[in-house]
Structure formats: C-alpha cells, structure tokens
C-alpha cells in the first residue's frame, strides 16, 4: 500500500462549483499536511499547509485534516478556470524526516467556463 | 532569475548514454531534492541532500547518481539511460525545518527527459 493515496481524477467541473479533493495516508507520524498546485509545464508550488488536525482557510481554499481517519481534504469554493491544474497532497512527518515529502499521485482538475 | 533553475528544460537522449541534469538555487536553502514525475504516479523521490556532505537515497534511486557540488548546486546523473527513465524531473529546495517557519518546497520548472 502506498503511504499516500490520491484519486488522480481527472475531475471536470463548471465554473463556480465547489470542488473537493481528497487524500488518504497510512503513516501515523505525519504531522504537516501540504497541498501543492501544479500548472501545466511548471513545477509544483505550495498552496496551503496545516499542522495536525483541523481546518485552515485561505480565501476560496480550505484545507482539512482528520488524523483519526488519516484523511486530508482540499475544498475550493467558487472555482475559476484559473484553478485548472494538478493538485498534489503531501504530508510530512517532521523531526528528522522534516522536508522529505511523500506526494500523492495528484488530481487533475479542469474548471470550464 | 528563477529561485531554482534546472538545465536543460528538454532533452532527448539515446539508450545507454550518460546524461546529467543540473540544478542551481538562489534561495540559500540547505536542503535539495530530485524527484521524477510520471503520469498516474505523482512525484517520487530519487535522491535528497540535507547539506553538502549529506546525500541520501530516496524511493527510486536505482540507475541514478547525484553530486552536491556546493550548497547551491545539486546535479542528477543517469549513468546509462534506459527508456523507462523517460519522465519529467524536478529539483526542489527547502529550508532546515527545526524551529523555523515552514515554507514548503521551492521547485524548479522541470526537465523533460526522453530516452529513445
């Protein structure tokens, strides 16, 4: 079993829709939970991160972590065509493993006008 | 100039050839990483280096080697390229984590490598 599982999609939604992107993980040591966004022909860029369980909101984006069920979510409200990208979840254990990220497979999202 | 620069951007090479991908950074970060990205498999760690004298194998290091020439430079070599090494390769950097605010990785724009 992979340490991090992410539905690769692809996911296609109309503009204005609410998008839910999800990952599950198996390593209980993960403490930091990141979401990266990758546009076509570009490197991934950090979108949001949370520490431990709970929610974090940044504009139209909300990251949610449930450590008890090992489930990570990213919600996008009022989705825009500019949100079309690949989204990758990436948990991190911290400590001596800090920074050595394990990425999910990535979900390809297309928001059409 | 980009914070993390990868060269070349694209490369086509023949099976059996030795090839080097280069990465340089101006972030001043100690930690550098090489990942490859394949459709449906996400990003997989090849090698990582937490400082100039520290080199570690990642998940898929077979067939690859690295050199950390300086804090700012980390190169990846394919000693004898094979077609299943065709992929998108990314270099990334990060700050030392302990006690510091976390800003995630900074990625380069990638090198698209095709082995024929």
Mean pLDDT of chain A: 90
Q: Tell me the helix content of chain B.
A: under 10%
The total strand number of chain B stands at: 11
Uncertain segments of chain A of ≥5 residues (pLDDT<50)?
none
Based on secondary structure, the structural category of chain B is: mainly beta
Report, as a whole number of angstroms, the end-to-end distance of chain B.
32 Å
Question: Percent of residues of chain B in beta strands?
Answer: over 45%
Considering residues with a beta carbon less than 8 A from a beta carbon on another chain, report the largest interface and each chain's count. Answer: A-B, 23 and 28 residues
Strand and helix order of chain B: EEEEEEEEEEE
Radius of gyration of chain B: 14 Å
Question: Overall 3D geometry of chain B?
Answer: globular
Overall pLDDT metric of chain B: 91
Describe the protein's topology.
The complex is a heterodimer of chains A (113) and B (116).
Chain A: E1 4-6, E2 11-14, E3 19-25, E4 32-38, E5 45-51, E6 54-58, E7 61-66, E8 71-76, E9 85-92, E10 107-112
Parallel strand pairs in A: 2-10
Antiparallel strand pairs in A: 1-3, 3-8, 4-5, 4-9, 6-7, 7-8, 9-10
Chain B: E1 4-7, E2 10-13, E3 19-25, E4 31-38, E5 42-51, E6 54-57, E7 64-70, E8 73-78, E9 87-94, E10 106-107, E11 111-115
